[in-house]
Amino acid sequence: MSDTRTSIASEIRRTPGIHFNELTRALDLAPGQVQYHLKKLTGTDEVVEESLYGRTHYYPANYGSWERGALAVLRRETARDILVYLLTNGQTSPATVADGVGIARSTLEWHLDHLVEQDLVEKERDHRNHVTLVVSHPKETAELLGLVEPSVADRLVDRFTRLVDGLLDGGANPPAEDQ
User: Fold this and answer.
1) pTM of whole model > 0.70?
2) Where are the transmembrane segments (predicted)?
3) Residue 177 domain-assigned (yes or no)
4) Which of 30, 46, 63 is the last residue of a domain?
């Protein structure tokens, strides 16, 4: 295996679920060069490619379907914030989560659609049809959260979305300050 292919495979093992653009930035390689080597790697049993939510993600072959989907969602800062909030505070209502994370309800619902679809969060309804959000697999989710290091570009996109939400919401949910 070439040195370039080895470094791509190593980066994918180090950061499972990394998306294509981040991979090219992390390795400082030309997109065409990365594409060529990824095609070779995905042709073997070493790397799995999966497109979710507008991005192509890459994983070591030993990651299962649930882990791949979960990592794709967890690469988004707001989705991570929602899960961390739920893991920290336990099951709660969507309104409480939106306020706690500092996002608009519409943004919460957009992320919840993906979190529910990937079996990270469940929406439980009581006899009055009130919704409570519950983390589906708390232990496994916490472990996967430890694997995700968002890129600066990903953080900027998520924070820009929060800023726009805050402006559209009349400033009721100002963007969260960076610690």
Assistant:
1) yes
2) none
3) no
4) 63
